Amino acid sequence: MASAHATGDMKLTANSPADTSATKTDVLLIGGGIMSATLGAFLKQLAPDWDISLFERLDRAGLESSDPWNNAGTGHAALCELNYSPAAADGSVDSAKAVGINEQFHVSRQFWSHMVSSGHISNSFINPLPHMSFVWGDAHSEYLRRRYESLSAQPLFKSMEFSEDHSKLAEWAPLIMEGRDPSQRVAGSRVVGGTDVDFGALTRELTGYLAGSGVEMNYGHEVSNVTRSSSGGWDVKVKNRATGASRTVSARFVFIGGGGGALHLLQASGIPEGKGFGGFPVSGQFLRSTDESIIARHNAKVYGQASVGAPPMSVPHLDTRFVNGKRSLLFGPYGGFSPKFLKTGSYLDLPASVRPGNLVPMLAVAKDNMSLVKYLVTEVMKTREGKTKALQEFMPQAGTEGWELITAGQRVQVIKKDPKKGGVLQFGTELITAADGSIGALLGASPGASTAPPIMINLLKRAFPREFGGWEPKIKDMIPGYGVKLNENESLLDELTSDTNRVLGLN
């Protein structure tokens, strides 16, 4: 089914009507990624009379962190990501975080299903794909077995399978078993009902819907400053990157959803809630297969264990991806470092983010994360031969031929104040809103895009407390499981899973 609003992805030139449009709006969205697109889609249905304007510095939506080649994870549901189910000191596995993330992903599925069934977007952005965890060695195999026992007891994970049998694992993912030492202890778990999501395609579907619904879309426009206006709203300075012309747009509410670029604008706003936050940028690379015969023999998202000192976003995985409808195979990521906060950003991004209020947290994080620094240095120094060796731990018969090295997107991990340590490095997302609800910003990364709808519902609740009560019946129509813990309501879980599978074409 084609999108009903494909015009939203058009490139706006220097002579676009956007340059002479109104200088006032109810809602101003900064960034053309999945977060702004999702928030805009909610607001267009909850408050259809509000004026909304979106500003994106690039010439198309979804080209930075939302792009599938830049995104390290495409469909985080905690089915295979081991860092969401950590082992305690006594060896037990805590399932709480995995359950929480899976609950959120079901909210996302319901929202996307609503958008598809309403004819607002197509379902071409999502494909069915088994999610699998794979480890080797006694300690890791025992952990995975305990993880399986913990998670499979939860209704959300009841379909999970587990095996240490080489032949069974070869059925699930032949490339990871061919050529492997038959005496090596290995273990794997699998959920057949996983998905792969092209968030770049989804973003463009949503922005197409916004454009067709009257939202003013401004591509090639960079927001350089956000300041309080005398009316209590916000004055947003915007520059047309093609012409160099600047203008100021006044807004009642501003959402800063510019990926890594959000931190600078949050700092510019001066809101007390944003003080003390810093960012630690992490870059990465992937190996992408160019051999169609290899690509065709792997049909799963296979995650392993992270190296000691590695950030969670660097968990190695051998991934089937569907990008613009074409099947591909990636392995990685290989960690790296760049001071840029965006892939298309500036080398001055990191130093320019240092403020008196976040200097102590940033120094504390530097002191307490030497293992991460060591890991990144090691990754940067890794040769192509070393990268291939890492691939061969997953895929023993892999060679250097038929694989190309691509650069992934930037991830800016959140640094925040901590009363005991001075500062901590947070792997996840952080939603920040002003006390009066007039501005909000999203910092951080994983699970990010996969949980955009529940994150944006949380933002709506914080930013529009007076309106939110009146919106809840509509939200319930859009998300039938809203407010219900599906892990505690198995019949509703089964009903909604069946319904979203049908609408999203996942059967």
Q: Mind explaining what this structure looks like?
A:
- α1 packs parallel to α6 (199-212) and α2 (96-117) packs across α15 (490-504).
- A hairpin with a 5-residue loop joins β10 (234-240) and β11.
- It is built from 15 helices and 20 strands.
- Strands 4, 5, 6, 12, 13, 14, 15, 16, 17 and 18 form a ten-stranded mixed beta sheet that branches.
- Helices cover 33% and strands 25% of the residues.
- The chain is an alpha+beta fold and 507 residues long.
Brief sketch in words of this structure:
This protein has 507 residues and is of the alpha+beta class.
What is the percent of helical residues? 25-40%
Shape verdict: globular
**Largest sheet, strands/sense/barrel:** 10 strands, mixed
Rg, Å, rounded: 22 Å
The secondary-structure class comes to: alpha+beta
Mean pLDDT reading: 90
Distance between the termini: 16 Å
Uncertain segments: 1-18
Considering the chains and any ligands shown, give keywords for the structure.
alpha+beta, disordered N terminus, globular, eight-stranded mixed β-sheet, 25% strand, 507 residues
